[in-house]
Amino acid sequence: MASPGSGFWSFGSEDGSGDPENPGTARAWCQVAQKFTGGIGNKLCALLYGDAEKAAESGGSEPPRATSRKAACSCNQKPCSCSKADVNYAFLHATDLLPACDGERPTLAFLQDVMDILLQYVVKSFDRSTKVIDFHYPNELLQEYNWELADQPQNLEEILMHCQTTLKYAIKTGHPRYFNQLSTGLDMVGLAADWLTSTANTNMFTYEIAPVFVLLEYVTLKKMREIIGWPGGSGDGIFSPGGAISNMYAMLIARFKMFPEVKEKGMAAVPRLIAFTSEHSHFSLKKGAAALGIGTDSVILIRCDERGKMIPSDLERRILEAKQKGFVPFLVSATAGTTVYGAFDPLLAVADICKKYKIWMHVDAAWGGGLLMSRKHKWKLSGVERANSVTWNPHKMMGVPLQCSALLVREEGLMQSCNQMHASYLFQQDKHYDLSYDTGDKALQCGRHVDVFKLWLMWRAKGTTGFEAHIDKCLELAEYLYNIIKNREGYEMVFDGKPQHTNVCFWYVPPSLRVLEDNEERMSRLSKVAPVIKARMMEYGTTMVSYQPLGDKVNFFRMVISNPAATHQDIDFLIEEIERLGQDL
Hints:
The strands form two sheets. The protein has a seven-stranded mixed sheet with strand order 2-8-7-6-5-3-4, sandwiched between helices. A five-stranded mixed sheet has the order 1-11-12-10-9. The termini are far apart. The chain is of the alpha/beta class. It contains 17 helices and twelve strands. The radius of gyration is 26 Å and the shape is globular. One of its GO terms (cellular component) is Golgi membrane.
């Protein structure tokens, strides 16, 4: 494939011209935004640069209805500046918007009101005085609103109210005190890119209908492969609908590499295949095995040490056992950043074993891949360059809006051979451009969402150094939390030692349990503490953090930090809130 080259498409901004902190750049952007979006640009710039008073915050009440704008007119000015009677959304329907005749003005008015709703939500997401969640039980929401679909259309006033209601009860995943999932935060450039992607509304299967996006995917995947350590960024890859699908792609390609006949003849034509992964790995490996007909019983779980890292000697032992039974080991999936402990498997040792037994090595770095952007922390993935494939989810540690997951493959052309079906209505061989840019045939999907633009635009805005600062900050916050609670009364660490990722796993022990002996009764009562505190967090709406059991360990909190909006004060708040909500248990 010919390289699109550097310049506009490439990463980095050595002259600082793309720096969002540069006032001249910011103001120039505002002028462009105002020129093309009118009121939207004015309001956004006012929010960003303080040129208008901050809108009043009204805690639990719904945003005011935007029910009127200037009506459509018959003049020929573009954009129209005529003053007409106000639009009444109660008498307008979707059929009055573009492409309807005279639909331009009501369309612009409607979309500006939608934008007002969105911008209010964005600003509230970063306001610590607002709730992370306005929690209602499912039956309450079902009874409070009519969510059913009808034969007759609703007017645009009702449509705007649905937008407001939906966001009113949505979780503010960008809130600085939302710690519940691996994917948190709300990046403004990523958000803008997502809006643009939806506006373009195209498919990723051919260059002819997604020329810029296909080129950006090529450039971005190549850059990611370079960071992994593959010479010159060589290889292949694709953006997929999440890490689970990326892992399944790896399993699919590894099987094809060993037994290409499986593509036409199916599993009946190959021997019993065995995959290996750690007991702390993501459940998607078993899901992929089930979906591909390999079977969950053919996924062997390898023992981990007390920190959650795969034990290489146990991996080799299980490989030898499988071979002695006549089975064929075809894939080892190591994890770089496990979901619960945040553990990094010893990739160099795993690579040596895979090389010894000629087994495909996959690294699930969905959670930990972002650390490759940090000079301080990338050593934790030493050996990833020896992998045959890597899953990397920028929508986790790098803060790219959902969804954004990449599967990177070291051998170029293998994905194409594995998945292509030569659909002649899409992939004609006599097109007038370089057909290597028609990448759709290497994907399992036909319709494929544009996920790359969010990552590419954020990378242009931040630079690699911006992502590095983001990641280093989150790791520092995790260490800050660990240092506070490791010797604090009422806290017990799930495992000893400083965490390798932002995962901090701990029990909160209420005063009533601190005097009990460490026995079955105490464990039974302790298992109920985290679920109750979590429920109270959600009902008050103050913060959210996840909990779970693991193996023989009863429910414990798993704190993760990936939101750059979080601060030391938010960590302090979390500790105080856990104690406030759990002291009476």
